[in-house]
């Protein structure tokens, strides 16, 4: 890939630990740096849980707005580009001998400078992680709502807001697990669930057979509607490939020595995760669209009504998966909050500080999810606004800034192609997502 050593390094190759006893104690308390004994397969299922989220269920709908040719192209290009940028991040984790960039913003600070790196990375990373947590509150609530409707036909309908509150109750408990390694069991269950409900989604669709009068034309009838929907669908796809925001934090949990750096086991886990991603994304997107055409819902499990027991089970799997996924994305946010409170504001690192801050965070994401449960619009808006930079082109800019590959070399060209595609995605998809939210908001009643 045309790699070179980092240019203009401000760090000297030094393996000595220069931290004070107090700094060590704080680092051993913070979620990201407190445990470094993860195995390579932890990386695999953490990455699957982070990536194969609710976005996979929206891919047939995205295909309906993109059409066959552009839809397949966008899916394949996104898979290749995001695998490449993920490889870059894994490589950059330990590019400076004796130092590990345990957090996305630490790598940003090394690439762009102490202050600028923070300003560039932290707001985008927070938008992604908090955005995902809000969307997953909605997804978990909707899936519980659907499960209840399927298994209890005669029951009185309960408001979606109550189901979001029920889903949130799990996080008021799980959010107190201290670090990434402590949620590995939850994450493994979530990864298995994601593969399970994805398989149910495409297998149940295939079993249904191509629907009578299936139509593969665009959902919108006007040109402007088609264009905006196309933009929105690009955001849906960007949302589906959003695992980069937690990749350095996941790698930070893997032990590392000069002889056996963490990038080896981490990359092994990433490859396994990306194979699982392909097995989930492509069948769901292509078979779902092939069977239902432009009549597919923004969540394919809503389109599938029968067999009832199987679709009910799939919705329950989604709930279990987004419980794990919520925790994966929340952990770096907890780390940021706790770092600021303990290192900047000099709070003592205690269990009750963690108890209060994490409960407040879960309550805020629950409240926002209850207030704005526009599933497809939220996917597109967040997908373009913040996922495109952090996933598609920010790693490339850091790579160019640090390694300085030769102009027009393979590495230089590959990075610039990713940057151009990512910038286009960042500009157009929030426009489509915002329009979807505005249209849905016209008929929406708060807390209905």
The gist of it:
It is built from 16 helices and no strands.
Which structural class do the helices and strands define? Answer: mainly alpha
Q: What is the end-to-end distance? A: 53 Å
- Give the radius of gyration: 22 Å
Helical fraction: over 70%
pLDDT averaged over residues = 84
Order of helices and strands: HHHHHHHHHHHHHHHH
Question: Major sheet: size, sense and barrel closure?
Answer: none
Counting DSSP H or I runs of 4 or more residues, the number of helices is 16
Structure commentary:
The protein has 448 residues and is mostly helical. 71% of the residues lie in helices and 0% in strands. The protein has 16 helices and no strands. It has helices spanning 21-29, 40-51, 59-66, 68-92, 104-112, 114-151, 160-174, 184-208, 223-240, 247-251, 263-292, 300-303, 308-344, 351-371, 375-403, 410-441. Helix 9 packs across helix 15. The protein starts with 20 loop residues before the first helix and ends in a 7-residue tail after the last helix.
List the helices and strands and how they pair.
Blueprint: H1 21-29, H2 40-51, H3 59-66, H4 68-92, H5 104-112, H6 114-151, H7 160-174, H8 184-208, H9 223-240, H10 247-251, H11 263-292, H12 300-303, H13 308-344, H14 351-371, H15 375-403, H16 410-441
Helix pairs in contact: 2-8, 2-11, 2-13, 3-4, 3-9, 3-11, 4-11, 4-15, 5-6, 5-15, 6-7, 6-13, 6-14, 6-15, 7-13, 7-14, 8-11, 8-13, 9-15, 9-16, 15-16
């Amino acid at each position: 890939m045309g790699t070179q050593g980092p240019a203009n390094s401000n760090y000297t190759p030094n393996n000595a630990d220069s931290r004070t006893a107090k700094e060590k104690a704080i680092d051993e308390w913070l979620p990201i740096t407190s445990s470094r004994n993860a195995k390579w397969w932890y990386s695999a299922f953490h990455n699957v849980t982070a990536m194969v989220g609710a976005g996979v269920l929206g891919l047939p709908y995205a295909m309906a707005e993109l059409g066959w040719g552009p839809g397949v192209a966008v899916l394949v290009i996104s898979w290749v580009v995001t695998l490449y940028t993920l490889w870059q991040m894994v490589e950059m984790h330990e590019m400076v001998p004796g130092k590990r960039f345990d957090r996305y913003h630490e790598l940003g600070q090394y690439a762009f400078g102490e202050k600028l790196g923070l300003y560039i990375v932290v707001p985008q990373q927070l938008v992604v992680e908090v955005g995902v947590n809000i969307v997953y509150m909605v997804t978990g609530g909707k899936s519980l709502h659907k499960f209840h409707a399927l298994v209890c036909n005669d029951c009185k309908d309960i408001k979606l807001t109550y189901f979001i509150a029920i889903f949130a109750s799990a996080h008021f408990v799980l959010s107190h697990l201290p670090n990434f390694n402590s949620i590995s069991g939850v994450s493994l269950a979530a990864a298995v669930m994601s593969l399970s409900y994805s398989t149910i989604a495409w297998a149940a669709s295939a079993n249904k057979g191509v629907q009578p009068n299936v139509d593969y034309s665009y959902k919108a009838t006007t040109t402007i509607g088609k264009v905006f929907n196309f933009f929105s669908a690009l955001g849906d796809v960007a949302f589906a490939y959003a695992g980069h925001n937690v990749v350095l934090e996941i790698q930070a949990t893997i032990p590392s020595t000069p002889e056996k750096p963490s990038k080896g086991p981490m990359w092994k886990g990433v490859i396994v995760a990306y194979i699982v991603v392909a097995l989930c994304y492509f069948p769901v997107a292509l078979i779902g669209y092939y069977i239902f055409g432009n009549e597919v819902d923004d969540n394919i499990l809503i389109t599938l009504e029968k067999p009832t027991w199987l679709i009910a089970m799939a919705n329950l799997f989604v709930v279990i998966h987004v419980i794990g996924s919520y925790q994966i994305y929340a952990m770096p946010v907890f780390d940021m909050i706790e770092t600021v409170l303990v290192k900047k504001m000099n709070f003592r690192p205690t269990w009750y500080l963690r108890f209060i801050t994490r409960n407040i965070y879960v309550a805020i994401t629950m409240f926002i999810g209850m207030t704005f449960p526009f599933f497809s619009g939220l996917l597109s808006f967040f997908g373009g606004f913040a996922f495109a930079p952090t996933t598609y082109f920010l790693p490339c800019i850091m790579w160019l800034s640090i390694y300085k590959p030769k102009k027009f070399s393979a590495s230089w060209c590959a990075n610039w192609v990713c940057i151009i595609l990512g910038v286009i995605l960042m500009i157009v998809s929030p426009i489509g997502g915002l329009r979807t939210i505005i249209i849905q908001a016209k008929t929406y009643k708060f807390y209905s």
